[in-house]
């Protein structure tokens, strides 16, 4: 089950076999957490369909989300970039700065399949079956999953998420 609701920033709702995030506030940020097990070593894939998205708007997957909201954020941008951010004790860092990738569609509407393989301190990131990069970080060893969308400018962003699959890699 996903966290749902409407806020001044936008709305998070369930559609037909998909979760929809609509950011209506300029530079707004929405996320939804999956109420599921705590994961440490896993492989996860999710389909992502940005329908309204441009420029530096972002969307993607939150990994190893702890109860205190420490997590990794695997983000794709609507201009074809991929990155990983870490949020630890309220401080953001970028263990993987943005890189341009041909595996990331540069416009909307599009459909991508995001993948993350996590085992111990190693996390490997994929888009549409193509390996993008890895990070090594033991600061957040386990947690839940979530999704997010962020408006990089003044315009709204709308992203649909579906077909989440999670596998144990022990």
Could you give the topology of this structure?
Layout: E1 5-6, E2 10-14, E3 19-23, E4 29-33, E5 42-52, E6 58-65, E7 71-77, E8 81-88, E9 91-100, E10 112-119, E11 122-127, E12 130-136, E13 144-150, E14 157-168
Antiparallel strand pairs: 1-2, 2-3, 3-14, 4-13, 5-10, 5-14, 6-7, 6-13, 7-8, 8-9, 10-11, 11-12
What is the count of structural domains?
Answer: 1
Largest sheet: 8 strands, antiparallel
Shape: globular
The count of strands amounts to 14
Number of contiguous helices: 0
Rg, rounded, reads 15 Å
Alpha-beta classification: mainly beta
Q: Report the order of strands and helices.
A: EEEEEEEEEEEEEE
At the first level of CATH, what is the class? Mainly Beta
Strand proportion: over 45%
Q: Spell out the CATH superfamily.
A: Exo-inulinase, domain 1
Helix content: under 10%
Summed over residues and divided by their number, the pLDDT gives a mean of 96
Instruction: Give the CATH architecture.
Output: Sandwich
Strand order of the biggest β-sheet: 1-2-3-14-5-10-11-12
């Amino acid at each position: 089950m996903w966290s749902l609701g409407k806020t001044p920033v936008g709305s998070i709702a369930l559609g037909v076999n998909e979760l929809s995030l609509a950011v209506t506030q300029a530079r707004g940020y929405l996320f939804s957490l999956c109420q599921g097990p705590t994961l440490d070593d896993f492989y996860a894939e999710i389909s992502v369909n940005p329908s309204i998205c441009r420029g530096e708007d972002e969307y993607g997957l939150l990994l190893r989300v702890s109860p205190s909201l420490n997590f990794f954020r695997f983000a794709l941008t609507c201009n074809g970039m991929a990155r990983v951010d870490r949020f630890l004790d309220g401080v953001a860092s970028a263990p993987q700065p943005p890189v341009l990738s041909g595996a990331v569609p540069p416009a909307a509407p599009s459909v991508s399949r995001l993948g993350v393989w996590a085992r111990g301190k190693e996390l490997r990131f994929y888009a549409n079956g193509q390996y993008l990069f890895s990070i090594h970080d033991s600061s957040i060893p386990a947690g839940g999953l979530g999704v997010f969308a962020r408006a990089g400018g003044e315009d709204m962003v709308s992203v649909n998420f579906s077909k989440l699959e999670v596998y144990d890699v022990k």
